[in-house]
Amino acid sequence: MDSKTTIIVKAVVIPLGFVVLILTITAIFVLKCRRDRKKDERENLHYSFAPYEQWQTPHQPDNQQWQAAHHSHNQWPMHQYPTASAQMEKPLVGCHPFGLAEGSIRTPGAMVWVKALLLGLCASITFAQSLDGIYDLVRRRMPKHVDSFRFSLVDFNSTSNDQFIVSTAANGTFLVQGNSLSALSYGLHRYLADVALVDIYWFVGSQLHLAPTPLPCLSTPLTGSSTVERRYHFNTVTFSYTTAFWSWEDWELQLDWMALRGINLPLAWVGQEKILVEVFREIGLTDAEISSFLSGPAFQAWNRFGNIQGSWGGDLPYSWIDSQFELQKKIVRRMIELGMTPVLPAFTGFVPRAISRVLPNATVVNGSQWSGFDERYTNDTFLEPFDPSFTRLQRSFIQKQQAAYGNITHIYTLDQYNENDPYSGDLDYLHNVTHNTWLSLKSADPNAVWLMQGWLFYSNSHFWTDERVKAYLSGVEEDQDMLLLDLFSESQPQWQRTQSYYGKPWIWCQLHDYGGNMGLYGQVMNVTVNATQALAASDSLVGFGLTMEGQEGNEIMYDLLLDQAWSRQPIGTDRYFRDWVKTRYSPGGRSVAVLEDLYQAWDILRKTAYNNTRLTSTAVSKSIFELQPSMSGLLNRTGHHPTTINYDPFSLVQAWQLMNSAASKDCSLWSQPAFLYDMVDITRQVIANAFIPMYTNLVSTYHGGASVSKEGSNLIQLLRDLDSVLSTNENFRLSTWIQSARSWARNDTEADFYEYNARNQITLWGPKGEINDYASKQWGGLVSSYYIPRWQRFLHYLENTQASKYNATEIEAQLLAFELKWQEETSKSTRAESRDLRSVLAKVSRKWPSVFGDQNSP
């Protein structure tokens, strides 16, 4: 019997004996108590649903009464708020935490025994769960070593959170023990990264297959304990900015990365439109009415929480809805296999405008106009949670979801006021919105936990006063039934002003990146020191999480927070960066001299780009060349999309030179994926920084009345060389994004629509540029086809217009005309020319000594 079979037998067969015994005793008590039942229990196993025509409530105030009562935030008396529990029929069955129907076992003594026995059963099942998921991970990523590891779930009899121990067995294999699948995965990660010096990364992919043979032995066991119960991942909008067009292969890499990083609470937000469409069809909405509500594939995140509705550029194909639903099935199945608890969506209340046709008496209000969009695409219709139809739709949504994926979670994401203010600021109103939302969740899943982003309390702080926040959160009467994401903890924490969300469990999150910006940026001290201080100060902090809008770079900053979840003291970033660099570049071995250059390069980054302390710039930077050209307003921007450089730009040149020096000593680095990615990334930032003084010189020359021909030519040449550098790596190419979008299509019409969505998001972000350049990218092909032509048109205008006659409105209109035309272009062939980074850098660095300094060519 091999080692894997042995461990499965121990983990499954032994607890099975306890299960049989427990079930036998339980059956005796159930049979004894069955005669006490007053009704046939079969009637109590399911909720009954009235046809949608009967979902109206005669005494519910109509829309005109409602709007009149709430105009200018007038108060609606507390007793007139119809609660979900009062408006719906009384549930036929109440549910205990153990899933038993209320009244099914009426003898108190029997209930005590059954609870005790079921507790034992649950404990047995916990340690009988399948280990196949983690064995499959090893088989996927390092097949040569599939027999090198044994995994064992162990009850450490400790009050701490997840724990692991990695040790070397007598036969030379490695025994990984943990009290959860997540602990086992993280323990495996620690051995592979710290000892075997291999890891898995977002863009570089997995290097685990490069682990040496034989694997290095351990002189002493590796141990670890998490300081928090939850390790969360995903901002809602990441599912548009980053994963909108991901394939299953992309998701497989991501999920393995998440498992090995110890993430155990990921948002699973793909494909929910399938469930929503079925719910809407059930109440009588037509497909045309539903389609007018749904947004395009690159913008679904904002449709889901009520910022936008409808799709510019064409309707969302139902084939997209079906394919994303099938993808979601694979995602959640893999999450479960890897020991994660998926966070699934719930019904939010946002509905098509035609809801008034099928539910004419429903209480609905309109959201606010969002980000300058025309009313056609915003002012979403919101079904108030105290309307009985809300609870029925919630039940329908969650039940259909459970039927599709199984009863795999009790945690649901639900955001009602993302950058939209509630209809009223009345405290009773706010309390009742959440109270009835909570009741609707509990009616669908008695164990439901409502997860919401705390972003609204920061983004719309003008509305969300302390008393309103407290009133809103108080609607969830049981603290453990809610989980808050303090979305921007590293820069704009809200947990202090809300007194740890008034006792509700919450997660300290690093947002860091808006829209998928690509500048090098981080706050190493805030991520380590502030996170541990919050853990010590707040009794209701239960986790750390990653909530970046776009997963586009700066990977070390996210690793840092996830590893901080396993350290009670702030991580020393000096040692951490050295270890991270050694693992990233060491497969195959590196000389001390080469590693020292790499250490020094990254230490410069640690002290500069990754150590921002000027919190006027709170997130990843954006280069001014990505913005619509203008004579003013581009420089020194702060906030979420800063254009300021909060370090000496020459320090980054020094880091680039050290990376180049390392590659000159060890030419094999030029074939190492991680080094190639990082070299492109650092070169990109060096050039982006150099663009600023060139632009400043252009502006000064223009205002001085001289020709800007020379200055303009330099700008364009620099951007062309940047494009050539970016185009050497598929992770920095526009074609990769577009090809991913087009790959989901069944025909050319769909492919062109998906490409339009992909192009629009990273440029105009809206049919008319409503959020222009918010999600801009520094990608090869995008620089050459979009940014350079914009700057050329701008420069042409300057060369033909005196400074005294400069008209910003006139040139903006010219630029918008080009931007709109670019959206409609298509790329039937998206295969980009592959060029050698080493030769490109040699040419570019020789051409621009003022940018790259004095150094030897690569």
Description:
The structure is a single chain. This protein has 858 residues and is an alpha/beta fold. It has four domains: 9-126, no CATH class; 132-225, 2-Layer Sandwich (Chitobiase, domain 2); 230-571, TIM Barrel; 668-852, Four Helix Bundle (Hemerythrin (Met), subunit A) (Up-down Bundle), CATH 1.20.120.670. It contains 31 helices and 17 strands. The strands form four sheets. An eight-stranded parallel β-sheet has the order 8-7-17-16-15-14-13-9. The chain has a four-stranded mixed β-sheet with strand order 1-3-2-6. Helix 22 (592-607) packs antiparallel against helix 23 (649-665) and helix 24 packs antiparallel against helix 25. The longest helix is centred in the first third of the chain and has 32 residues, at 3-34. It is globular, with a radius of gyration of 29 Å. The two termini are 55 Å apart. Residues 1-15 and 24-127 have low confidence and may be disordered.
Strand order of the largest sheet: 8-7-17-16-15-14-13-9
CATH architectural type of the largest domain: Alpha-Beta Barrel
Largest sheet: 8 strands, parallel
Number of strands: 17
User: Which strand-content bin applies to the residues?
Assistant: 5-15%
The level of helicity is 40-55%
The Cα radius of gyration reads 29 Å
What's the number of domains? Answer: 4
* Annotation field: number of helices: 31
- What is the 3D form? globular
Q: CATH fold name of the largest domain, please? A: TIM Barrel
Q: What is the CA–CA distance across the termini?
A: 55 Å
CATH class assignment of the largest domain: Alpha Beta
- Helix/strand-derived category reads alpha/beta
